[in-house]
Amino acid sequence: MEKTFIMIKPDGVQRGLVGEIIGRFEKKGFSLKGLKLITVDRAFVEKHYSDLYAKPFFNVLVDYIISGPVVAMVWEGRGVVITGRKIIGATNPLESSPGTIRGDYAIDIGSNAIHGSDAVESARKEIPL
């Protein structure tokens, strides 16, 4: 069965969106296989977002993710990666449809509440982290 990695970012945790976000995945019939409330360190975030290292916003992103606790989750179900991305919405909240997590709750492109694996291969890499 397919699995994906979902992380509620510090702004989502601080604003009390954890239950709402979990509910959206449950309503789609996905199974929550693991959940941790953690504060991550710089090394973890740099490894997790290593594909963005050359981007000009990389250090801002790292500082943001280590600014507070995150909720790391593993979800399982048929098509959970693609459907999860649809539930989450576009990275840029201006491009996210109403009804998606980011369309409803993102503050800006940096504080966009949630991260989700963008492909099955990404999920395989992210889940063990």
TrEMBL record:
Keywords: ATP-binding, Kinase, Nucleotide-binding, Transferase. ATP binds at K9, F57, R85, T91, R102, N112. The active site is at H115. One of its GO terms (biological process) is response to hydrogen peroxide. PROSITE patterns: NDPK (PS00469), NDPK_LIKE (PS51374). Coiled coil: none annotated. InterPro entries: NDK-like_dom, NDK-like_dom_sf, Nucleoside_diP_kinase, Nucleoside_diP_kinase_AS. One of its GO terms (molecular function) is nucleoside diphosphate kinase activity. Its EC number is 2.7.4.6. Residues 1-129 form the Nucleoside diphosphate kinase-like domain. It holds the Pfam family NDK. Its cofactor is Mg(2+). It comes from the Eukaryota. It catalyses: a ribonucleoside 5'-diphosphate + ATP = a ribonucleoside 5'-triphosphate + ADP; a 2'-deoxyribonucleoside 5'-diphosphate + ATP = a 2'-deoxyribonucleoside 5'-triphosphate + ADP. Belongs to the NDK family. Major role in the synthesis of nucleoside triphosphates other than ATP. The ATP gamma phosphate is transferred to the NDP beta phosphate via a ping-pong mechanism, using a phosphorylated active-site intermediate. This is Nucleoside diphosphate kinase. It comes from Nicotiana tabacum. The lineage of its organism: Eukaryota, Viridiplantae, Streptophyta, Embryophyta, Tracheophyta.
